[in-house]
Amino acid sequence: MVQRLLVLGSTGSVGDSVLDVVARHPASLMVYGLSAHRRIDKLYQQCRQFRPAIAVVSEPQHAIELQAHLLAADVPTQVLCGVEALCSAASAPDADTVVAAIVGAAGLLPTLSAAQAGKKILLANKEALVMSGAVFIETAANAGAVVIPLDSEHNAIFQCLQGCQGMLEGVERLILTASGGPFRNRPADSLADVTPDQACAHPNWSMGRKISVDCATMMNKGLEIIEAHWLFNLPASRIQALIHPQSVVHSMVVFRDQSVMAQLGNPDMRMPVAHALAYPQRMESGVEPLDLTRFDGLTFEHPDVERFPCLGLALQVLADGARASAALSAANEVAVEAFLGRRIRFTHISQVVEQTLQEIDVPTQSDLEAVLALDHQARRLAREHVRLCGLSR
Ligand code: NAD
Ligand code: MG
């Protein structure tokens, strides 16, 4: 049977990996829809190659331009625009599988729409899950949606858990590995001066700029621990992060009997993509075979929360019940954008997030309305802190 895909965020780094795998399997995978925010040229090329039924963009002017170009090239794709179009595409009967690969909070509503419609969801957009937590998990469970993580660590854990009955009793803890990012060994007192390009130069993975900065601050690992909490229904005390600079072991599960299962491979997103697309079968991914003899050793160490305060902030939010996680994610998005735009220093990112968390009103409810209100409030506070940090540069 052919699997029809909607790829949300198809022009990004994850989107590239997804379409690379799709192109290898024309008999079993078909693109129903694609979406992009600003990179319209790239979306145009993707539409020419995959000839989807629909393509969704954010700006009306882009939609008009893209539609005209596609018509001229005889490509039968209908161009749509805006968040409502993304949400209806995500629940359309013509899509069997929705790949959630938009970055940040912008992906929340379309991903939730896919969950509501009971789709198979390939989840890369961790911010959507971190923000909405219980709302997302309950919506997906009630509608019978199947969520398969694309985030390499969570995909690894998902694979290690195959065949495990009674997850809560059988699993002692999860170990998420982290590369440590580009500043793992850099003197802490020089971090204030690093540039966006230095922060985005990840040693092992090639990714979008926002997640690359998150790896450099280790907020990424903090968000991933919260993501693991929701995906695998385990408390914070049973989820651990270890620095593993070689990025070969993608994560591990420690079982009650002290058996440890790990998933290994080269750091290439096409591996979790192929796994999730073919699940429960397997398909070729294009990833280079792993040559373990190439490494001097595989090493593991505890992360230093002093050096990476963002990780500590995320762990605190989870320990407090994760009710403030939408604020954590929103403030981080605002701060990272300001850092990438050279308005604040690298070391200001954790300050902006911390100060925002201190000032928000933590909601007592956890419905979608409360999540969106918290996101809004946190962005407002974070922008103000960005402004103040910017003045002190
Ligand atoms: P990216 O910046 O390369 O791509 C982001 C995509 O989202 C683009 O297609 C862009 O057009 C779209 N987009 C951005 N803002 C939008 C908006 N306001 N409205 C609609 N669309 C918008 O990012 P990425 O590295 O591909 O990451 C995507 C998501 O996957 C992130 O949540 C990230 O944390 C997660 N993730 C990425 C990787 C990786 O290897 N890149 C690994 C694990 C998880
Ligand atoms: Mg990851």
Note the overall shape: globular
SSE string, helices as H and strands as E = EHEHEHEHEHEHHEHHEHHHEEEHHHHH
Structure classification? alpha/beta
CATH topology of the largest domain: Rna Polymerase Sigma Factor, Chain: A
Distance between the termini: 57 Å
Strand segment count: 11
The biggest sheet, with number of strands, parallel, antiparallel or mixed sense and barrel status, is: 7 strands, parallel
What is the name of the CATH architecture of the largest domain? Orthogonal Bundle
Return the domain count: 2
Mean pLDDT reading: 96
- CATH class identity of the largest domain: Mainly Alpha
Strands in their spatial order, largest beta sheet: 4-3-2-1-5-6-7
Task: Tell me which ligands are bound.
Answer: nicotinamide-adenine-dinucleotide, magnesium ion
Number of distinct helices: 17
Strand content: 5-15%
Low-confidence stretches: none
Characterise this structure.
Helix content is 47%, strand content 15%. It is an alpha/beta fold. It has 2 domains: 3-149, NAD(P)-binding Rossmann-like Domain (Rossmann fold, 3-Layer(aba) Sandwich), CATH 3.40.50.720; 156-268 and 294-391, RNA polymerase sigma factor, region 2, helix turn helix motif (Rna Polymerase Sigma Factor, Chain: A, Orthogonal Bundle), CATH 1.10.1740. The strands form 2 sheets. It has a 7-stranded parallel β-sheet, with helices on both faces. A 4-stranded mixed β-sheet has the order 9-8-10-11. The termini are far apart. The model has no long low-confidence stretch (mean pLDDT 96). Nicotinamide-adenine-dinucleotide (NAD) binds next to α1, α6 and α11. Magnesium ion is lined by residues 151-153, 224.
